[in-house]
From TrEMBL:
The lineage of its organism: Bacteria, Pseudomonadati, Pseudomonadota, Gammaproteobacteria, Pseudomonadales. Transmembrane segments: none annotated. This is Cellulase. Residues 473-488 have a biased composition (Pro residues). The gene is egl_8. GO terms for molecular function: cellulase activity.
């Protein structure tokens, strides 16, 4: 048996890339969901291990993956935890597509349910497969929608009678399957409901089920049909800028105390708007700064107010000193545990929310009247262009603005900064993307009307009191002609071929989860591909490098954009080119 640290190092595809060390290589469309009276456990845990090292198939329990033994259930039950999200992987459960269930893996899952039954715990059984089987997206190649329906039918046949089975989480973190996921989700629902007419089915969302951008990608899930009218939508939330859980390029001391609330609010508001129920299936904060716990505390208070349960990532065997883990070390609780413990509660809510008019436990005090600020908030004109994606410089499908990437704008419009729109709305910047001479500023809001808040209006930084400037200061006219624009084809500083590998996290050397590219860590590459340098992709797009991560003989180059890259279009055998440093 390997040590706990070794399990983390060998873990792959048991969750999204950033939450681990780099691997070794719907409800009925026209009806509101039924209200199911129950004791809602507001905080639970992801008890992981069975999905570790998904690249090693079938693998060996205790070597490549690890099922929790009884002591883990005994320990967490004693601490008050009753809700467990339990990830498993399809390839181990059914080694041959369309074939029988593997008796060894199946027996270990049986054992897990036995422990949960003994300690009165509830299990959300999570098929942790990212809409893929052996790297092929369901509904493409040799992996059909019927294959997926069959495995969900077999899962329900095997475990629907288990008293501790609470719900079926029919697919973890769908991505790269915008077209296929809504179709396959219906097949998955059909498979479960052919056997189990009662238990909830959980539906995660496209875009890695990320809560902040959930409304961008997932309206198509509103068309899902469940004859039992018992769907629960599940989002995931991590507080770093790209929501990946790596937390390497963010300063928590600069984040507002309600930053966690703002991260999950778009998902909660989507649920309210559409009359759906939901939960947060994964969230986690680092153990290296107490302020992370404040952000998590405020988020959990907001979720409790809305009766939305949440399961923390992660606990269970094999995590060692992993910075998001809440598994005790040598009997000592981790720093995140006291905050989580505050919200162990199964008496406050008798149905999963949210509710359209939640009652706050503590009334929000009325704001103290103040004299309007006479200071001038920094402002920028919004770019004047309209096409299929933009209207007057405002993105049509999400809350984003395009402004010039001047030094003043890049300094002023930073993540976490409050801005005021032309309609008076004050909101915070959630992410910023620099593309050539322009920058996209994404804010925490539903989609905006470019005819109302777009060009010729301005985007204004609000002051500390949240008022901002009522009349932005005019920009001085230049006394000399503007400099000649940079050439459309910047001079090449350096170039490198991308690494040629594909797995559940990468496609042709391009990360599936975030805008990142893998290159050989040669002396020339480490010198050229530095944070802040501009690089050009094979499709002509130019981005700045946000961060670089060295892993053995390779390096991962992360780009400053929230948009995922298409490895089929820009990956190997294409090159990545540095055009400025």
């Amino acid at each position: 048996m390997k040590t706990s640290a070794s399990f983390v190092l060998n873990k792959i595809s048991s969750t999204r890339f950033f939450k681990k060390v780099l691997p070794l290589a719907a409800a009925v469309a026209l009806a509101s969901p039924a209200v199911h009276a129950e004791q809602v456990d507001l905080v639970g845990l992801n008890l992981s291990g069975a999905g570790f090292a998904a690249q090693v198939l079938p693998g060996i329990d205790g070597t490549n993956y690890i099922f929790p033994v009884e002591s883990y259930f005994q320990q967490w039950n004693a601490k008050g935890i009753k809700l467990i999200r339990f990830p498993i992987i399809w390839e181990r459960l059914q080694p041959t597509l369309g074939g029988a269930l593997d008796p060894t893996y199946t027996a270990l899952i049986d054992r897990t349910f036995g422990y949960a039954n003994k300690y009165g715990m509830k299990i959300i059984l999570d098929l942790h497969n990212y809409t893929m089987y052996r790297g092929t997206i369901i509904g493409t190649g040799n992996v059909s929608y019927n294959h997926y329906q069959q495995i969900m039918t077999l899962i329900a046949q095997r475990w629907s009678g288990q008293p501790s089975l609470y719900a079926y989480d029919i697919m973890n973190e769908p991505h790269d399957s915008m077209t296929q996921w809504p179709i396959m989700a219906q097949y998955g629902i059909n498979g479960v409901r052919s056997v189990d007419k009662v238990k909830p089915i959980m539906i995660e969302g496209n875009g890695w089920s990320e809560a902040t951008r959930w409304p961008w990608w997932n309206d198509s899930l509103l068309n899902l049909k469940d004859p039992s009218n018992n769907l629960i939508f599940q989002a995931h939330s991590y507080f770093d800028e790209d929501a990946g859980g790596n937390y390497t390029a963010i300063d928590v001391n600069k984040l507002d105390a309600n930053y966690g609330v703002e991260r999950v609010k778009p998902f909660v508001e989507w649920l309210k708007k559409n009359g759906k129920r939901g939960m947060i299936g994964e969230f986690g904060v680092p153990d290296n700064n107490p302020r992370w716990n404040l952000l998590m505390d405020n988020m959990l208070a907001y979720l409790k107010q809305n009766c939305i349960p949440a399961t923390y990532w992660a606990a269970g065997p094999g995590w060692g000193s992993y910075f998001l883990s809440v598994e005790p070390i040598n009997g000592q609780d981790r720093p995140q545990w006291p905050t989580l413990k505050k919200y162990i509660d199964n008496t406050t809510c008798t149905a999963i929310g949210p509710f359209t008019a939640p009652v706050a436990t503590t009334p929000t005090p009325a704001p103290t009247p103040t004299v309007p600020s006479t200071s001038t908030g920094y402002s920028s004109a919004i770019n004047n262009f309209t096409n299929a994606d933009w209207l007057n410089g405002v993105y049509r499908k999400a809350a984003g603005f395009s402004v010039a990437a001047t030094s003043g704008n890049t300094a002023a419009f930073k993540v976490g900064t409050s801005v005021r729109l032309a309609n008076g709305l004050v909101t915070k910047i959630s992410s910023v993307q620099v593309v050539g001479s322009n920058m996209s500023v994404w804010v925490n809001s539903s989609a905006l009307d470019g005819a109302v808040v777009g060009y010729p209006n301005k985007l204004t930084v609000a002051d500390a009191a949240g008022t901002g400037a009522t009349t932005p200061a005019p920009t001085p006219a230049p006394t000399a002609p503007a400099p000649t624009p940079a050439p459309t084809a910047p001079a090449v500083v350096a170039t490198s071929t991308m690494n040629n590998f594909t797995n559940t996290d990468w496609l042709n050397g391009v990360m599936r989860k975030a805008a990142a590219i893998s290159l050989p860590a040669t002396t020339a590459n480490t010198s050229a591909f530095k944070t802040g340098a501009s690089v050009r992709l094979a499709n002509g797009q130019v981005y700045k490098i946000k961060s670089v991560q060295m892993v053995g003989s390779n390096m991962s180059v992360f780009l400053d954009t929230p948009t995922l890259l298409n490895g089929s279009a820009v990956g190997y055998p294409n090159a990545l080119t540095v055009v400025s440093q």
